[in-house]
Amino acid sequence: MAQFWKPGSEKPRAVILDDEEGGVLFFSAAPSISGYGYASLERQRQRLPVFKHRTAILYLVESHATTIIVGETGSGKTTQIPQYLKEAGWAEGGRMVACTQPRRLAVQSVATRVAEEMGVKLGEEVGYTIRFEDITTPGVTMIKFLTDGVLLREMMNDPLLTKYRKKRQEQASENCAPSTQPAILSVEGQGFVVEISYLEEPAPDYLQAAVSTVLSIHDQEPMGDILVFLTGQDDIDAAVQLLTENAQKRGKHSSGMLVLPLYSGLSRADQDLVFSPMPKGKRKVVISTNIAETSLTLEGVVYVVDSGFSKQRFYNPITNIENLVVAPISKASAKQRAGRAGRVRPGKCFRLYTEEYFVKEMPAEGIPEMQRSNLVSSVIQLKALGIDNILGFDWLASPSPESMIRALEVLYSLGVLDEDAKLTSPTGFQVAEIPLDPMISKMILSSNELGCSEEIIIIAAILSIQSIWVSGRGSQKELDEARLRFAVAEEIWGGLVTWALLLVCNEVVFKAVEPYFENVWESTIRFVKD
């Protein structure tokens, strides 16, 4: 195992880490292995820090047009405040309380938890909506969890969000109208001491170092779940396989360790395993992407292993290429990761990098996603919402001029924007309504005119998902065999699949959606003809 030491001196000393970021804390109805379980869901709700602010929250919402509630991880803001609003009558008259989450998994998990607390069936009084999945009942659902993107789509058809709110002036006279000044309320979180350890020397292989650290924790530390942060599905699957193989070799000694992956592409059944409480004497080891960094907090986690890396999306407006790149995390992310270990009791965090790197080289904050992403979809959404002055828009983190210009160029070349940078009719509005990348949306619309919709829809479906391969637990051999049936020796094949399919369908469709690749298009035609 890699050697760790605590920062500050030659001999170890503890470091206290206070978590100040957001997230969702889940307690199972059954008593937890850590001994912090409660006798009932209602008692759990009352133990949350937000409970004692219930009256103040409802008063501020009633008396102010905007109420801002600042709460740390574990305060209960996400699960409790929607229930408080519903109980106070804000969901009456056919309206709903909406609660957005940044990730699909968080939406599903929080909705399930709130339905459990209210004693109702998921999809009735409490439901959720994510892309391609609507688990709500019209006229019945009163609390609805959804992703930010879904809410933006709803705003395109209903800018005033009339399903969720009404104008305050309609419910009060001019003398008692709500204040236009926003109200701010802070809710303390609940955290415990987290002891942090660093590597003495940089790890040559963070994946192997993570596996070794997990095994050492399992051998030497008291019972408690382990959360490991890695970069993506490939690394996670490799770590799960290494830990499983090691447990098999060690036999009975490692029988108390259950290794589970956690990433966005997992099936719902596999996701539920991560949130299930463990029997006494069993230790859960969750190998996760940064999805568990802020959106979710797992009950029972006492130990965190931080690789120091995550996959981040970076866009180059000059080449018009967007890639997922393994990159070092920031101090803010490192602090957030360590805080996962201190949610239900004192914990430990093992960082797979040196203290010197953390102090001197690690950036304080990460680059905002808005400044490293392709803005084509964002621009068309703003245009559809009636915000035409894109260059003068008050972004929270201003994107680069090159990215903005490239987004406008792409949309203009697709016929989505006219010479005045306004949405064209009907093409521009049709593309904006389809919840896909604008290039794929335009491709689908063009295929209808050119009589090749069936082929193009298949291509669009493949291009719209992260991976067409779904592996079940214990079926890696079958998955590899299935992949081999589609594999060829030539490296050129991967780059030509989409080109060849589009060529078969209609070259005019391709030209409509890829105006910048005329030279490559001509080369592909020559290649196929030859």
Automatic annotation (TrEMBL):
Keywords in alphabetical order, please: ATP-binding, Helicase, Hydrolase, Nucleotide-binding
Gene Ontology MF terms in the entry? ATP binding; hydrolase activity; RNA binding; RNA helicase activity
Known EC number: 3.6.4.13
For this protein's source organism, the top of the classification is: Eukaryota, Viridiplantae, Streptophyta, Embryophyta, Tracheophyta
Q: Which residues form the Helicase ATP-binding domain?
A: 58-165
- Name of the molecule in the record: RNA helicase
Record PANTHER family: ATP-DEPENDENT RNA HELICASE, ATP-DEPENDENT RNA HELICASE DHX35-RELATED
Member of which family?
Answer: Belongs to the DEAD box helicase family. DEAH subfamily.
Q: What is the organism of origin for this protein?
A: Acorus gramineus
- Domain Helicase C-terminal residue range list: 210-386
